[in-house]
Write a structure and sequence with these properties.
The complex is a heterodimer. By secondary structure, chain A is an alpha/beta fold. Chain A has twelve helices and twelve strands. In chain A, the strands form two sheets. Chain A has an eight-stranded mixed beta sheet, with helices on both faces. In chain A, helix 3 crosses helix 4, helix 4 packs across helix 6 and helix 10 packs parallel to helix 11. Chain B has 13 helices and twelve strands. Chain B is 35% helix and 20% strand. Classes of the chains: A alpha/beta, B alpha/beta. Chains A and B meet through helix 7, helix 8, helix 10 and helix 12 of A and helix 8, helix 9, helix 10 and helix 11 of B.
């Protein structure tokens, strides 16, 4: 994970620490990740685990009160950690695009969607009105909107959620960015539409070599779309690796728990599992592993000191002292069978 | 269903329901000829995409929307015909309770949890404040919350706790039927499973029938007994959840199943086999055509007439002219187009 970045790296984040509440608490703790050209990297974790803050730091749009305390963000080998506002503006659209969960809150409800896309093209690419119009129609076609000439003149309330998300993607890719950051971009969509948007992102990657940082709390979606996964827990990366390895052979107990509770897509009646306990609150300091309190395989040594990411296979890392312990999988699987009712009681008592 | 065998009368019967929202040229036919029965003690999952009428159906059942045609019979009484005082009394009785998707927006941010849960009882009248207090605590206990949250506001508790508060609010009035509109969409996987388990337990302990509206098919499969699939205002399939989800009889249900993201990859049919392509013959476009015809790759001339919901197996019905043939046709469609 250290050393020189690969030559085709688009986004490189190294040891990122982000503080919230004007520095009172640290919400992102030493996150390192990289996205290469044509690669789709998934960020997964519970709400409040620091996925969105990491994305916003990478986009240079941290909310007020949040600061990068430590670490480095590189975009195409350019250090953008302390980039000026002007610098970020140059990068937005042309270097990186973003799509968020709720398209309606990012589009002006009173303007036509085509006009809003054309505006971006005129400002960012200095296109003339008719050139912008023509390119906008082309982009709407590229994201699979039927009858783009008609859609151009519609306002957001006349379009469905899936169509609006396509408009957002069209705007995000309008100036040929190298990186697309999609934060819960398919969460609010119907499954049929979600499947279409996932296909669209895959096509854009194949055709344009677009790099995508895809945030979702749904492991099944990540499984469908991504090449690599980064699992977040309480502000830290706890496991990262190729998607098949993470899904088939998760090594961190948290990833294992996440997979058990995820909608695994077997449409059978089954015991719905929960992860007992709560993650540490943002800014809550712990000694040792941050998952230890909820971990069925925790031993006293887990709390002895900070746990580092260890390499299990090339490109597969986990932040667990027992990651290579053959007993670990047995313990967590056994916990899943026996301890679930106890877990429910404990949750109820909380 | 064993419930159907032993119980002569369904708790809720929706018959021939038509709902039109808006007037004149803006009139929008949201529900057409919806027939649905809910039996005591069963969990029914209502699935369908945005705009299919799931929420409208729920709102019509609780009396927030007046249907144009059709009857809603609850526990033997036709509640859709009630007007004025009788209607108000029925609503305030709290027999049917609705739980909304986003608890942060559906709970008043200025009220405390105690006030939120007790508000319905206070409005109903005739119940002393001591009694309300004890029923509030009872309801909170049923959803696994203790009295420490009583004086907190919705903004001060976690998302999972908030949804439990809205369930407690519904339980406080001792309902006979619970309708949950996307109860877990705003929650992450662990909290989602916790809430679904809670609903399942409530069904078991209180024998409370529950209708869950959700687009998360996999979690529904975990707890529901029956699945009802809506498409553009019509029920296209209705049957036991395990059978409907494993071998759907309507091509739309199959498309939903194939589209659902999955950690495993063991689908019988791929999305590509179920989606219309440019190569397919044009589908009937008559106004009376099957609602799904425009998206259906198996549409033929007879699909110009909306098919009725007919039994295809015991306790299982589907509204498709070709419910016996399409699955075979789908399998023979270009499996070359299948993707990993």
């Amino acid at each position: 994970m250290t050393g020189n970045p690969p030559p085709d790296e688009v986004l490189g984040i190294e040891d990122l620490h982000v503080t919230v509440h004007d520095g009172a608490a640290t919400a992102v703790r030493g996150v390192t990740l990289s996205v290469r050209t044509g690669e789709i990297v998934g960020l997964v974790g519970e709400s409040g685990s620091g996925k969105t803050l990491t994305c916003r730091a990478a986009l240079g749009v941290l909310p007020p009160g949040c600061d990068i305390r430590h670490g480095r963000i590189a975009f195409g080998h350019q250090d953008v950690t302390d980039l000026s506002r002007r610098g970020w503006e140059r990068l937005h659209g042309t270097g990186m695009g973003a799509v968020f969960q709720d398209p309606t809150s990012y589009l002006n409800p009173n303007l036509t969607v085509g006009g809003q896309l054309a505006e971006v093209l005129r400002v960012k690419q200095k296109l003339r009105r008719h050139q912008a119009h023509r390119k906008a129609i082309g982009l709407f076609t590229a994201v699979g909107l039927h009858n783009p000439g008609h859609v151009f003149h519609q306002i957001p309330s006349e379009l469905s959620g899936g169509m609006l998300q396509r408009v957002m993607i069209a705007i995000a890719i309008s100036c040929d960015p190298r990186l697309l950051i999609a934060d819960e971009a398919t969460t609010a969509l119907d499954v049929t539409i979600q499947a279409e948007v996932i296909e669209l992102l895959r096509e854009l990657r194949d055709q344009r070599g677009l790099a995508v940082l895809f945030v979702s709390h749904d492991l099944a979606v990540i499984r469908e779309l991504c090449d690599r996964v980064v699992v977040f827990y309480a502000g830290e990366v706890v496991e990262t690796g190729p998607v098949e390895q993470i899904i088939e052979r998760p090594r961190h107990p948290y990833t294992q728990a996440l997979l058990r509770v995820a909608s695994v897509g077997d449409f059978q009646r089954r015991q719905l599992e929960v992860i007992p306990g709560q993650p540490p609150r943002v800014g809550e300091e712990t000694t040792g592993c941050r998952f230890a309190e909820r971990c069925p395989a925790a031993v006293p040594k887990c709390l002895a000191g900070p746990v580092d990411l260890s390499t299990l296979a090339p490109g597969h890392h986990a932040r667990c002292i027992r990651a290579t312990d053959p007993e670990l999988a047995l313990i967590t699987a056994g916990q899943s069978a026996a301890g679930q009712s106890a877990a429910a009681a404990e949750m109820a008592a909380r | 269903m064993t419930a159907q065998a032993t119980q002569a009368r369904p708790l809720l019967a929706v018959e021939g329901l038509d709902v039109v929202l808006g007037h004149g040229w803006q009139a929008n036919h949201v529900l057409s000829d919806v027939n649905l029965k809910i039996w005591p003690g069963e969990i029914v999952g209502l699935v369908g995409e945005t705009g299919s009428g799931k929420t409208t159906l729920a709102r019509t059942v609780v009396g927030l929307i007046r249907p144009r045609n059709g009857r809603i019979v609850f526990d033997g009484a036709e509640i859709s015909r009630l007007r004025g005082g009788a209607r108000r009394r029925e609503r305030r009785s709290g027999h049917v309770q609705l739980i909304f998707q986003d608890p942060l927006r559906s709970l008043d941010p200025d009220l405390t949890v105690a006030q939120i849960v007790g508000e319905g009882l206070a409005i109903r009248g005739g119940i002393g404040s001591q009694e309300i207090r004890s029923r509030v605590e009872d309801a909170l206990a049923k959803v696994g919350l203790d009295s420490t949250v009583l004086y907190r506001q919705p903004g001060q508790i976690s998302g999972g706790q908030r949804q439990r508060v809205s369930i407690a609010r519904a339980l406080a009035s001792d309902p006979s039927l619970l309708l949950c509109d996307e109860p877990v969409s705003a929650l992450d996987a662990s909290n989602r499973n916790y809430i679904l388990r809670l609903l399942s337990e409530l069904r078991d302990t209180l024998d409370l029938p529950i209708i869950i509206i959700s687009h998360d098919l996999s979690s529904l499969a975990g707890i529901a007994d029956r699945a009802v699939v809506l498409y553009r205002g019509r029920i296209v399939e209705d049957g036991p959840v395990s059978q409907v989800f494993s071998a759907p009889r309507h091509p739309y249900t199959a498309l939903l199943m194939a589209s659902a993201p999955s950690v495993k990859h063991d689908r019988s049919l791929s999305v590509q086999q179920l989606r219309r392509t440019a190569a397919d013959p044009p589908s009937p476009s008559a106004p009376s055509a099957c609602v799904f015809a425009a998206r259906c790759p198996f549409a033929i001339d007879s699909c110009a007439e909306q098919p009725a919901l007919v039994p295809v197996a015991p306790d299982w019905s589907a509204a498709c002219h070709r419910h016996e043939e399409w699955a075979g046709l789908a399998r023979s469609r270009t499996s070359a187009a299948r993707k990993g």
